[in-house]
Amino acid sequence: MIAGRLLLYLAFGLCLALVLGPIAVIIGISFSPIDGFAFPPTGLSLRWYASFLASEKLLDSLLFSFRTALTVAVLSLILGTLAALALARRRGLLAASIQSLFMAPMVFPTIILGLAILLFVRVISAPLWLGLIVAHVLISTPYCFRMVTGSLQAFDPTLEEASQSLGAGPIRTFAYVILPLIWPGMMAGALFAFIVSFGENNAALFLTSPGYSTMPIELLGFLQFPGNQLIVAAASTVQVGLIVVLIVLMERLVGLARIVRGDRRG
User: Fold this and answer.
1) Domain harbouring 169, CATH code
2) Domains identified in the chain, total number
3) What is the reported pTM?
């Protein structure tokens, strides 16, 4: 028993180190006062953050990434919720096939998806930024679909039947009965969609253009020039900070445990 517990703690510590270790290094070197890499840093300086704030291209890409991720979160939430409402309680081969189709972008290579959408938007002469939104929505919708589906499967269907038996139509039933009970799952899906879109770069490689470039793509460009690595570290730390702030805000407003569980209690 003790050996098994120690092994579990060891595995947990190893996973934690693999996940948080690289992030800790990036954050540490972003405060370095020197031009080269040094971890732990020999001192503390905000010079690389000042360089980041002085870069108009990086700031513009950060704002564009934020607007894109927000748009994608809203669209993915709408599509994922509608799909979950239609498929959550259905059984059979057709329903299972459609559910697998919605989840497919989670395992499909996003770089191939980006190339396919690039060719499609060129055929229909659509702007690249529209293709970028479509690609991010396709990648992010499965997260919303899965979270809302989990909330609906935990939802007591007799409540919906009681509402309809009392004369409420489908829209009123959804607004006053279903929505208040599944909204933690919806918030979880929207949160995941925002984070996935905010950091996605494989599909975006083919779908960005001057003035419509996401921050991950700009950071890849900065890495090609010597001396910009620490600016990239500072910009990456800002990205991590924004995501942490969003998660903390969601925790304060809703409760992160309820979001992840899709808790039914209002």
Assistant:
1) 1.10.3720.10
2) 1
3) 0.81
